[in-house]
Amino acid sequence: MTREEALRGRQRALLETLPKHVLVIAAGQSRLRNITSLAYPFRPASSFLYFFGKMPPGTIAVLAEGSSTVFIEEPAKDDVLWHGPKPSFEQYRAACCADQVKSKSELITFISKFDQTDILALPTLDPVTNGELRLVLDRTVRRDGRDSTLINVIISMRLYHDAFSLAQVREACEITSRAFERGIAALEPGANERKVRAEMEYAVGEAGTDLAFDPIVTTCGEVLHQTRCGADMSAGEMLLVDFGAESSEGYASDVSRTWPVSGKFTGPQKDLYQLVLHVQKTAFALAKPGIEFKELHQVACETICQGLIDLGIFTGDPQELARRGAHTLFFPHGLGHLLGLDVHDMEDFGDAAGYAQGRARSEEFGYSALRLDRVLERDMIITLEPGLYMIPALLKDSQRTEPLADCLNLEKANDFLEVRGIRIEDTVLITEEASESLTASIPKEISEIEALVSA
Ligand SMILES: [Mn+2]
Predict the structure, then answer these.
(1) For residue range 118-145, what is the model confidence (pLDDT) as tens digits?
(2) Which residues contact 114 (CB under 8 A, 6 or more apart)?
(3) How far is the CA of 129 from the centre of ligand 1 (A)?
(4) Domain 3-158 belongs to what topology?
(5) Topology of the domain comprising 163-454
(6) Which residues crowd ion ligand 1, with CB under 5 Å?
(7) φ, ψ (nearest 5 deg) of residue 125
(8) Ligand 1 center to residue 384 CA distance, Å?
């Protein structure tokens, strides 16, 4: 499937699903950094990318009466001096695979010929664009109003990856795989975390793409979203790396590995690492069409409890421990999430994509961080990312530990404090009968890692 076949096919499918409506999808505006001539790098909104690919800031697409029209901001007078010549409208039309391209100055006249009540639009994360949509449509575009009809149709398309989307995620995973190769080669006691991160980003820069998210490259693995990076690494510590490149068309990948800085796991590190790896393999073996993702999460929680019983940290029955939420002391997040054009795919729609219709996120600690609750189906892409963390803020919180006094050996848990945090994450495709790890080439066995770091 070529890019053109994909984009045209998706535009057609959307037009055919909502034939009586006028559909407005905006790319968004670039955001300024600190002065007016300095913008953050521009990336169109993901749903815009899904149908039209990369187009300039301010672009707005309208799909109506069986055809797609893309409205582009005309360049300012001296843009050519600072930014060079822009593509022609015909070149833009070919690039976004729309039926026609027009100047943005024609948008209001174009829209006003339709019945207002037929118009559905996608809200964006960009307040400037939402303001512009409010002016053009004379109403506020909202996630929960009538525009949710459009959102739900787009979710039902983006949930299942077509051949082009899958090829793009595979491309992103390949770049990420090269990044991990460079990263582990840069690991050595005394080196700075930033060196590993820079080596990994080199692979992304070399591929000419971007990062899918702000990476985590840290020896403070117990801080779940530690984006600060810059400590010198010592032998005995582990480096947790959660990193993902984007593909050329903006699709994500998401991988985590945890490496011993010296190239050799200590005893407690090895114990917990083996457990996380076992949990991930158990979940992977169960991931296939027809299974509830929540069930995978549940199995992961129970397997963690069993492993912690074996290590003497818990006593009791693993299912009962998981039911009581004992695992959340060491595994407070969810097992994974959807992945596609966004690393947490379609989270700009809240939980509408991650949670099947009629389901809502639990408020219970642990389950409240579960980003995915639906039956897995063929062509979905998810992540599987169990972790174990020794988080002083939780272990010192008597409100959390006291209810577990009968089954928790805190003293034993403290023996593992130096381990700090371990996460093992792969990007996984649900296939016809099972699942395929798209990042299986990135080593995660203890023997492989020890051989690579000391090499
Ligand atoms: Mn992830």
Answers:
(1) 999 999 999 999 999 999 999 999 998 8
(2) 22, 64
(3) 28
(4) Creatine Amidinohydrolase; Chain A, domain 1 (3.40.350)
(5) Creatine Amidinohydrolase (3.90.230)
(6) 254, 383
(7) -85, -5
(8) 8
